């Protein structure tokens, strides 16, 4: 590339890369820098005092800071694992149902499923908090009609996180179903015809053709589902405030509590950096597993 | 020439009008609160009355849910563009003043405040002898009970001691009806902490003394054991105790719908009960907190709210804000010698802390049966500790009490955890 071409390429790329640097890299680097400082979020950066890795030692210590952070990390991991484990298979199953041409109503079903994704979380939270009400909620009343006893839903530490997962699945599965349908449309019909001629039944066709060819779609869906789940905030802030007994205290909510309510900016930044590292590791592992599966 | 003169006059008139407009909105004052819409409307009406005589001040009111109030204050409220005035809870003051988010009250208004408010309330609004806010409401806790459920269970009057309280809780519990004797609260720090603390002080104990936690006392041990008994015997069902970000939710629904016999709550929730019960509020009565085996008289914790001014607002905005607050809390802004703030608070069933408001509303306070249990307790109330790290301390104790509610900790373990956590948190935040 000639010098003039290189200069014009730099000139054309500069606005975009400049914006990325200002709005993405600077806050990220600032958060990493703050994670090594003792700093109140209500004061200027000039008041930050370097404390080395103390914030990271504190968030993994046996003090209340460490116990609460580790519990939030476990809650976030469980929430993410459960959400992804339910959403992905369900979205493929619903995608097959929507995509099939044997029975009518596929487009209508897809619209209904996707509509939950478009409902604002504040409305979802208001409705679901009432649905989950242990004594007067419609869910328990409906369960009662079929002889199932009262469930505690959000009112018990043993069921609260699962209840938030169910809410998340309900809201997100339509979006991932649309992704699955997009993937299914890319599978050549000829492969199914050939498999039928070879005598493959529907189950065999699903596991030997559909699922392998949906690999890239599922990988993309898994990455998005993990990121969405790790960033869960609204249902916790609006419905449970992390309770009861911190059972739904996920990391984003906990970081907000520490970094903003308590103004402990250094600790909050250390938690945010740890969350970012955990997310990077999880996504990298996912890609590694996917590559390995492709090779075998 | 005539045209030029006309043009000149027009330009002069426009310039005068423009300058008038600019001066008419010289100070924009915003007021951040957590009050409900109907109460916000009353505050807006008071602001409109004030701006009639102060056209140079424009006052706007912004409301957020209680659960978001501190966060809003900490984020947008802390900057020059944040709210000029904010209503805050006294436990938040040490941290907010440490971060220099709140301005000291001007000397003249501070002197007036010290004369017209009880010393304890002024003390809760001060740090190191410096007054940071004009106090308005004071809250204490009382036993709220359902008279119909009491009559159905054959209970003649409210319990006066813990022994009577446990006997009544047992009589009121009927699992076949989904009815609990005593309603606890979870998922809301103050909702968990304040009833527990009120029982503790009514048993002669304290949460914090001279900045040090005293949850290892015998009085605290008995209070933890009381909670354990209520849970283990099934008199209180933690699954009926959840609160949401608006400090409502199942715990309120269960009391309102007659599935909870007794609850310990502050006077401010009269408006929430009215909203849920309507005329059936007449079925609810209040009484002082039952006295524990180590206590002498019925006590409750108390806490106060105050209005503070943003230290990062401009000098003009701060001056306008203090002038408005001085008027709002003064004896000329409300009916019959009461303050407009006192009138707003009374509309929610909240006790105003200004001494002259107490006199102005004496008839209403005496004639409101719901407030009886609270006004009887007021003289013996103990202030909730105002310490650095108070929010973190509250959330840690909340978690421990909730763990005990759900059977994850015994009373002994909960007491040890609570004392150890409080010691570590208060020591760290005091540094």
UniProtKB/TrEMBL annotation, chain A:
Entry keyword Membrane: yes
Keyword Disulfide bond: no
Location in the cell: Cell membrane
Annotated membrane topology: Multi-pass membrane protein
InterPro entries according to UniProt: ABC_transporter_permease (IPR051393), MetI-like (IPR000515), MetI-like_sf (IPR035906)
Domain ABC transmembrane type-1: 73-288
Signal peptide: none
Keyword annotations of the record: Cell membrane, Membrane, Transmembrane, Transmembrane helix, Transport
Matches recorded under CDD domains: TM_PBP2
Pfam family, one: BPD_transp_1
Transmembrane segments annotated in the record for this chain: 12-36, 78-98, 107-128, 160-185, 206-227, 267-289
Principal subcellular localisation of the protein: membrane
Any one biological process term the GO annotation gives: transmembrane transport
Family of this protein: Belongs to the binding-protein-dependent transport system permease family.
PANTHER family xref list: ABC TRANSPORTER PERMEASE PROTEIN (PTHR30193), DIACETYLCHITOBIOSE UPTAKE SYSTEM PERMEASE PROTEIN NGCF (PTHR30193:SF41)
Name of the protein in its database record: Sugar ABC transporter permease
Automatic annotation (TrEMBL), chain B:
GO cellular component: periplasmic space
Keywords, in A-Z order: Periplasm, Signal, Transport
Signal peptide: 1-26
Transcription regulation as UniProt keyword: no
Cellular compartments annotated: Periplasm
Domain of life assignment: Bacteria
Entry-linked InterPro entries: Bact_solute-bd_prot1, SBP
Family: Belongs to the bacterial solute-binding protein 1 family.
Record-given protein name: Extracellular solute-binding protein
